[in-house]
Amino acid sequence: VGSKLSALGPAMGFAARAGTGMAGRRGLVQSALGESALAFAPSSRLAARSLGQLQFGSVCVGRGLGVRNMSTEVTRERLRNIAVIAHVDHGKTTLVDKMMAQCGEMSTTERFMDDLDLEKERGITIMAKCTSLIYGDTKINLVDTPGHADFGGEVERVMSMMDGVLLLVDAAEGPMAQTKFVLAKALKRGIRPIVVINKVDKDTSRVDEVASEVFDLFAFLDATEEQLDFPVLYASGRSGWADLTMDGPRTDMTALLETIIKHVPPPTADADKPFSMSAVMLSSDPFLGRLLTGCITTGVARINDPIIALNLAGEKVDTGRITKILTRQGDKGIVPMESAIAGDIVQIAGLSKATVADTLCSPEVTQPLPTQSIDPPTVCMTFGPNDSPLQGQDGKKLTSQMIWDRLVKEAENNVSILVKRSENSSEAFEVYGRGELQLGILVENMRREGFELQISPPQVVYKEQAGKRFEPVEEVTIELEDQYMGAVVNKLNARKGIVSEMRASNEPGRTRVTMTVPTRGLLGYRSIFFTDTRGTGLMTRLYTEHQQYLGSIDHMRKGVLVCMAGGKTTEYAMNDLEARGTMFVAARTEVYNGMIFGEHSKDADLDCNPCNAKHVSNVRTAGKDEFIQLRPPRKYNLEEAMAYILEDEMLEVTPTAIRMRKKELDTSKRARASRDKNKKHSA
Length: 683
Fold this sequence. Notes:
- This protein is α+β, with helices and mostly antiparallel strands.
- The strands form seven sheets. Strands 20, 21, 22, 23, 24, 30, 32, 34, 35, 36 and 37 form an eleven-stranded mixed β-sheet that branches. Strands 14-13-19-10-11-18-15-16 form an eight-stranded antiparallel β-sheet, with no helix packed on it. A seven-stranded mixed β-sheet has the order 4-5-3-6-7-8-9, sandwiched between helices.
- A hairpin with a 2-residue loop joins strand 4 and strand 5 (138-144).
- The longest helix has 19 residues, at 22-40.
- The termini are far apart.
């Protein structure tokens, strides 16, 4: 069989280049090997391995015969590990789709890598995901990373596996806040990036200026001479082409794939040492149990090999055997492997307690692998069980223990989230994260899983140093029409923002402004920003550092309308209350004492009863009731409601409802607490 396969090589190579289908290539194999050899091949391990190694371009002959496992034969020199990093909406996932299609690993589904429900709904990447492409005789492990700053922890944790990065930059927008963040992480690890200027076919593209801005960013981040000598490609991810020059053929992704193989070095792994791997991702399978993803640092992983797990302190936390070695290959999904070599990125099953940052290794290994430090969280929220009068009507997971178990599970897999028990309540838990969006995604996932809970408004995480308080500060980049710039800058100045740069945008009539603003000044500002810019503004945020406390910020929100009785709201009562402010709920909605149902037109809160019904008597009148027509209520999504509430308020979240409420539901107790607070301030 081996000699016939060698003779078959040139014919198969010609067939692959000519675009011959799988059925035609199978016919070539049948004619060369004969029916008896073909029938023997699937049952012979040696023949199957020989067929699996016969590969031309992106086509594997063995794959057509049912032999899918070719990754075990890949050598370290034929491996490339690379991540795609960029600012949000610069086209990472679309570019990955086209690269997969070029290698024959892609279905017709757009944004194939964004497989989570929330990713599909919002059009953003939330979780980093790894897949493998076979191009020529090279296996490329490709990681698609999130572009939003709140999910920067996903970028940080996968960077330890990478030997190269594709830095995507929009040809019109140029380098943005997250571009600077992800590039700094790559340069710090000594990685030599490949720059891809994407969307060069847009009418507003400014390719030469963007290329110059990218070079300036490299220099600003203290890139070495080798890192400054980066290749630049010009691409259109949606059209599916990338070239080394602007006047290239614009046909496919060949230039990009060839540049990856040429520019990205193979992994610097040692296959002769005992097996070791640092886990950077954690998932679960109903049949296999825990799946730990990472890049094999040393040695070879084989099915049924004994392994242990070491934590960062070098303590043994788990023991087991490798039951499965898996890799994800394009749209074929998870593909099993018999073994994996040092430098490859795989999923390993067989341990029940190991988690992210643990070292999976052979029993003779005693020292854990070093891990990359993660930037600290900047925002904290308090989670607790729902204790409102409407509790238990929607969800199935109600207890504090269920909430705690779910939060611990999230913290295990997400290195940028920290969870601890609250000191103020035995049933409350403090959750620390990178921003409102990241914590909002967590709450949204929990409510879809059937949880009922209540959460506090986001609070910034302060640091105490030498008796002084330091707070997180972010770099905010906004792009908006000139007519709205005055209102936006004035409101950010009132929130302790300082303008650091202002220049004209590439689009006429628009300006790009860069400011430094404390994180607490940005809480709840996003909805205000979009209202002020009539939905035409763009705003991005990036944590920079902790600075000394910048002073108090006057709150910009008005008071709220609070229910003082329970029941269903009536048209009669709400018609009279519309003059007092804006409603958040419609008529005939179930409410309870202490629930917020509207915004007051004045700064103070107002307790009122939206459940009043018209008094009915047996006295007849000559007239008739007037027709009542109410204004539509203002609706808030989860992130908007989280940003709206104040320190004395909570957000009740159930699978079907989002309700704002006061922490203290009793009206008389709230009034007493307000009087005591005023006396304290006056004293």
